[in-house]
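Summary of Year 1 activities. Much of the first year was spent building the evaluation harness for sequence design. The harness presents a backbone, in tokenized form, and records the residue chosen at every position. We chose the following record to illustrate the format because it has been used consistently in internal testing since the harness was completed.
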């Protein structure tokens, strides 16, 4: 026992000041220690990763319901790397524990194994606490739990419905079809409608494709994109889904038509599908709303010469946001990289932060001097983008300074970004 205590004390002493401050949640001390480590050249990738893990762990374990559970949700993107902390939090008998279990179930993180589905459904399916019912709903995977899963589709709480719909996406149970179609039609939550349509795409069948065509008539633009994706899923595409997507590419406009064009260009399309897909994407690259043009440019396959030529033209002239999207896309190809980077540098020099971040994503270090002051921006979204940009430039130590940010969302997002960039 004495030896164990001595070993634990030695381990605590061996931890760096930054790591100790991170574990304690003392962000003022962490800020000072991180700056000192950076100045002394000690903040390498390994140490930055250790501190990021300590910060993420602290945020997860310190989160308390009802209003301070956001760090657990923020851990979704890096659940594998923070699975130990999530497992510990999942053992807590509160909403934070239930939410941590949901994150683990969604990510199947690390070596964690979900308790038996039947046990979770039995113990939590009738709970008055929505997050516990959501755990039961997420566990309802498999045709043998179809009755329970479908009951959760109409739960009064949206968290429960969303969890059940995610379970349905994994199952592709034809018995879910009728209720999924009803969810896609009447659920008040747009995300629930989207998940239901994705689940239907996995089920497929001619009847499903026709029902989704009916839903198209009253769907908004975002939902229409999801319907296109669902029609392109393998179970649906051979049952009329491809026919519907072709019609969208040939007759519609905006984001749904772009999505349809991109779906048609996947793999080795037949001539008619390829021609329709190229027309839809080319049209979107050259004209329309700026956001639609940027979307088409960012997703267009560069191995089609017509598309690459159109993107070259968009990089050279047009609205700034479209030019940045086009030049950033061209920077991905060796033959066009130098000119694209030069164009982005000129736009950034004129004061565009968007171009600055695009240069960082492209790995161009000329962005660094102008990026550094933005780490002190009063806008937390800008600080998050700066952390990501610094990581893109290989400046992990500088990005790690934002692990001591005053905002928990910035700290957690930066923690996940560092953990994902230094994955072992």
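For this record, the design step produced the sequence shown next.
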């Amino acid at each position: 026992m004495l030896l164990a205590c001595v070993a634990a004390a030695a381990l605590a002493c061996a931890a760096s000041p930054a790591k100790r401050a991170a574990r304690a949640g003392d962000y003022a001390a962490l800020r000072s220690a991180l700056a000192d480590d950076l100045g002394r050249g000690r903040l390498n990738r390994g140490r930055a990763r250790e501190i990021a893990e300590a910060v993420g762990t602290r945020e997860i374990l310190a989160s308390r319901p009802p209003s301070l559970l956001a760090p657990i949700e923020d851990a979704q993107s890096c659940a594998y790397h923070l699975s130990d902390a999530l497992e510990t939090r999942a053992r807590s008998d509160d909403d934070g524990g239930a939410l941590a279990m949901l994150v683990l179930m969604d990510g199947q993180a690390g070596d964690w194994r979900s308790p038996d589905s039947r046990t979770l459904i039995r113990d939590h399916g009738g709970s008055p606490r929505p997050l516990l019912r959501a755990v039961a709903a997420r566990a309802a995977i498999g045709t043998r739990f179809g009755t329970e899963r479908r009951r959760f589709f109409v739960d009064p709480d949206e968290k429960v419905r969303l969890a059940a719909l995610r379970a349905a996406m994994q199952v592709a149970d034809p018995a879910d079809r009728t209720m999924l179609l009803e969810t896609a039609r009447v659920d008040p939550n747009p995300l629930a409608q989207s998940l239901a349509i994705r689940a239907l795409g996995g089920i497929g069948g001619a009847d499903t494709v026709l029902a989704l065509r009916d839903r198209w008539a009253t769907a908004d633009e975002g939902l229409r994109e999801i319907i296109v994706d669902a029609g392109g899923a393998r179970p649906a595409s051979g049952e009329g889904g491809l026919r519907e997507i072709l019609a969208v590419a040939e007759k519609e406009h905006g984001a749904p038509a772009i999505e349809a064009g991109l779906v048609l260009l996947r793999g080795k399309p037949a001539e008619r599908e390829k021609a329709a897909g190229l027309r839809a994407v080319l049209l979107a690259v050259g004209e329309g709303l700026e956001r639609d043009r940027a979307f088409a440019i960012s997703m267009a396959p560069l191995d089609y010469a017509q598309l690459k030529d159109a993107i070259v033209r968009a990089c050279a002239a047009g609205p700034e946001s479209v030019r940045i999207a086009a030049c950033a896309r061209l920077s991905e190809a060796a033959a066009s990289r130098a000119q694209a980077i030069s164009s982005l540098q000129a736009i950034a020099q004129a004061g565009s932060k968007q171009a600055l971040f695009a240069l960082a994503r492209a790995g161009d270090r000329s962005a660094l001097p102008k990026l550094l002051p933005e780490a002190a921006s009063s806008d937390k979204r800008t600080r998050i983008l700066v952390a990501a940009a610094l990581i893109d430039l290989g400046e992990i130590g500088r990005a790690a300074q934002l692990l001591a940010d005053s905002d928990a969302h910035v700290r957690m997002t930066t923690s996940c970004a560092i953990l994902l960039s230094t994955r072992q």
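The mean pLDDT is 93. Quantitative recovery figures across the full test set are reported in Table 2.
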